[in-house]
Backbone:
């Protein structure tokens, strides 16, 4: 298959913001792809060459992309940099150079998807000595036989900046449209469930192409990351009961981060809710699991909470968030920022998918298999409550001991991944707080010169990112203040720079932050049509993925609420 066929689809997808149109472009193409017997090529639609859950990256910095373009087109590196400073988009620059070369008849044979996929895989896998040069060679080999548009998408893929607005939802709906025309509604759910179990486009796509029976055979694979159940927000105890029924299970809502714990034999694997593998960062948790949980194989849903050894007090998420990303000095960090694992659910136990069992049954399993060891691992604090008065008491007790609020769970409900079905609701004091992604930044001045210190943040709207404001406060000046510093944020953002204009840069949307603000108003200054007033970053959220950020609808809803206290 020619790579240009993919590129045509990319162009068409990028040209429409409408989800339904995207689906009608993709579905016929998926039928065609089925004939090729290479389901993994579909990964290219979300700009990857591995399953959705697989966090491996191409590791291509802007500098490296400059070099690859320069070597592929025989152009001086400084000239590429100068072009970048002028145009600010490396994809377009590659397109321009490739088009020019075509006119000078240096163009060679057509690029195949096989070749592109294969080289991209190798770029991702190469490590160690000489890796940079090898990566450059693999990329320039592709660019050497690419036409303008192909060159643009190769570079955009490598820089994680495909810009075709295809999120998982569009892919799922396209599979349904492609293979189950008659019974769409029913299949949408089935495909979503299969997708949630394996998080792998290729597996779901090839099963769906064979029919419903194959799709139903898809099972949990212990050791690969799984999506978790999400909570619906309620305003008070009465609403909580209305949502999940009476009596209900009340639990403390711990202010840590979600950790999905897999064990098979003696191997333990830890994943965040955004499916990142964080096993290496938490050897202390691995040890606690091996010592204190019975069972040959299981998947537990937990919240890991930081605490202070000296005072014996829990610490807010902000303080321990750095443990999620840290790859060095792990032993020191365990000493400084220990965590306690609070287990609140189980998805799989000794060969059986227990998500279909009611909550009460699942709770019994965790109570049976977990040995509570204070400050290491324990089952979450829980109480089954049937009246509002007692529920209020439990809620206030939770707040008094410093928890964020309570989670209230439906006793007879199964575990449903992802969907905010209302089988578990969260109740906590109201704060104006949105999760947004950073899409741009500006350099600071004076003491902060050279650092990116103010950030353009955006919400999502059907796979597109729309700006809602600029935020320059909330992070810390120094490391010992606890929490993410401007310097750390700057370091995270610099490799993501994909465009430049004066003092401002555009970055590939990767970094999620929680932002608090006074209120949201209509504003022509930002692409969403709204702006936050007095925004401040409360947390960097390495545990969140960009498809979990606030949507334009959330912003509109908040804008309607008007001025807050
Ligand atoms: P928030 O920012 O309010 O934590 P969120 O968007 O991160 O919300 P939600 O699913 O809406 O996630 O809220 C539930 C989160 O609360 C879970 O993801 C989990 O990390 C955390 N949590 C803490 N304690 C519990 C508990 N006992 N049961 C379930 N989830 C819990």
Residues:
């Amino acid at each position: 298959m020619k790579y240009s066929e993919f590129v045509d689809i990319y162009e068409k997808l990028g040209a429409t913001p409408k989800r339904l149109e995207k689906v009608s472009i993709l579905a016929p193409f998926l039928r065609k792809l089925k004939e090729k017997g290479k389901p993994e090529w579909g990964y290219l639609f979300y700009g990857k060459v591995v399953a959705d859950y697989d966090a491996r990256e191409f590791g291509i910095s802007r500098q490296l992309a400059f070099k690859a373009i320069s070597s592929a087109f025989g152009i001086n590196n400084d000239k590429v940099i100068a072009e970048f400073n002028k145009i600010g988009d490396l994809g377009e620059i590659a397109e321009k150079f490739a088009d020019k070369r075509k006119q000078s008849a240096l163009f060679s044979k057509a690029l195949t998807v096989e070749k592109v996929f294969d080289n991209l895989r190798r770029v991702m896998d190469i490590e160690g000595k000489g890796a940079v040069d090898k990566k450059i060679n693999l990329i320039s080999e592709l660019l050497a036989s690419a036409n303008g548009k192909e060159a643009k998408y190769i570079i955009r893929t490598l820089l994680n900046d495909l810009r075709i607005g295809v999120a998982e939802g569009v892919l799922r709906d396209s599979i349904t449209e492609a293979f189950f025309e008659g019974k769409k509604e029913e299949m949408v759910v089935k495909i979503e469930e299969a997708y949630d179990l394996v998080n792998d486009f290729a597996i779901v796509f090839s099963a769906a192409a064979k029919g419903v029976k194959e799709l139903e055979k898809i099972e949990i694979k212990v050791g690969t990351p799984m999506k978790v159940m999400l909570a619906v927000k309620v305003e008070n105890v009465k609403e909580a009961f209305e949502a999940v029924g009476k009596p209900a299970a009340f639990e403390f809502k711990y202010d840590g981060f979600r950790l999905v714990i897999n064990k098979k034999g003696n191997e333990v694997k830890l994943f965040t809710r955004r499916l990142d593998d964080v096993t290496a960062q938490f050897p202390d948790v691995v040890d606690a699991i091996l010592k204190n949980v019975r069972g040959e194989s299981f998947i537990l849903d937990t919240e890991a909470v930081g605490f202070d050894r000296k005072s014996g007090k829990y610490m807010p998420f902000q303080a321990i968030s750095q443990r999620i990303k840290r790859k060095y000095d792990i032993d020191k960090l365990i000493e400084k920022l220990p965590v306690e694992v609070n287990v609140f659910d189980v998805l799989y136990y000794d060969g059986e998918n227990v998500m279909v069992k009611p909550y009460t049954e699942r709770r019994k399993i965790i109570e049976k298999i977990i040995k509570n060891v204070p400050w290491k691992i324990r089952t979450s604090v829980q109480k089954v409550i049937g009246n509002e008065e007692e529920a209020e008491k439990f809620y206030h007790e939770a707040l008094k001991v410093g928890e964020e609020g309570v989670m209230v769970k439906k006793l007879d409900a199964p575990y449903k991944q992802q969907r905010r079905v209302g089988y578990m609701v969260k109740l906590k004091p109201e704060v104006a707080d949105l999760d947004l992604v950073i899409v741009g930044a500006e350099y600071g001045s004076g003491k902060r010169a050279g650092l990116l210190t103010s950030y353009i943040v955006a919400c999502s709207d059907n796979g597109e990112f729309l700006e809602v404001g600029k935020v320059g406060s909330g992070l810390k000046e120094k490391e010992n203040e606890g929490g993410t510093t401007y310097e750390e944020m700057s370091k995270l953002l610099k490799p993501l720079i994909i465009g430049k204009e004066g003092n401002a840069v555009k970055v590939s949307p990767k970094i999620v932050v929680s932002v608090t603000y006074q209120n949201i108003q209509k504003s022509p200054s930002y692409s969403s049509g709204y702006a936050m007033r007095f925004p401040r970053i409360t947390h960097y959220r390495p545990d969140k993925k960009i498809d979990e950020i606030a949507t334009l609808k959330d912003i509109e809803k908040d804008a309607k609420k008007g001025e807050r206290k």
In short: The two ends are 59 Å apart (CA to CA). DSSP finds 21 helices and 21 strands in the chain. The chain has a mean pLDDT of 92. Residues 433-564 form a domain with the OB fold (Dihydrolipoamide Acetyltransferase, E2P) fold (CATH 2.40.50.140).
